[in-house]
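Q: C-alpha cells for this one, please.
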Amino acid sequence: MIGFRVLFTRLLPRASAIVLLLAALAMLLSCSGRKTSDEKKNVSPVAQSSPKLQPFTPVPPTPVRAPVASQGDCAPRYANGGKGTCINNQPCRGFGVRVENGSALCTCFGRDGGCKEGQRCDVLRLACVPEKEPPWGRGHSD
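A: Here is the predicted structure, written as C-alpha cells:
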C-alpha cells in the first residue's frame, strides 16, 4: 500500500508534467509548416494597372429658402407623439419655406410637398422616415 502511495504522490506529477511538455512540443512543431521567404508570392505595393474612374455626375444644390412658421391647427399628429406643421391651411408632414414667388411651400429637406402619409420629416436623417420610427435615433421600445 505504501508503494502505491509513493507512486501516486511522486511519480504521477512528474509524468503529467512530461506529458504536458510533449503536447506543447508537438503543437510547436505543427506550427512550423509556414512558408519560407523563397516560397512567398512577390507582391508589389504599386498597382499594375491604372484605376478605372467613372465620370462624376454633379447633383444640383437644393436652393436655400427662408423658413415659414406654422399657422393654424391643421398640423398632423404622428404616432410617436410628434406634430407636423400647418402651411397654407393644409397639413404638412415637414416644414414650411418661402419660395421665389413669395408663397409658402411645404417641404422636407428638398422634397417639395412634404412626406407621404405614414411618414414624418426627420431632422437627423434629413429625409422622410416611417412615422412610427422613434425620433433622435432611439431604438424601438419593447
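A few notes: The beta strands are 66-68, 85-87, 90-92, 95-98, 104-108, 111-112, 119-122, 127-130. The two ends are 67 Å apart (CA to CA).
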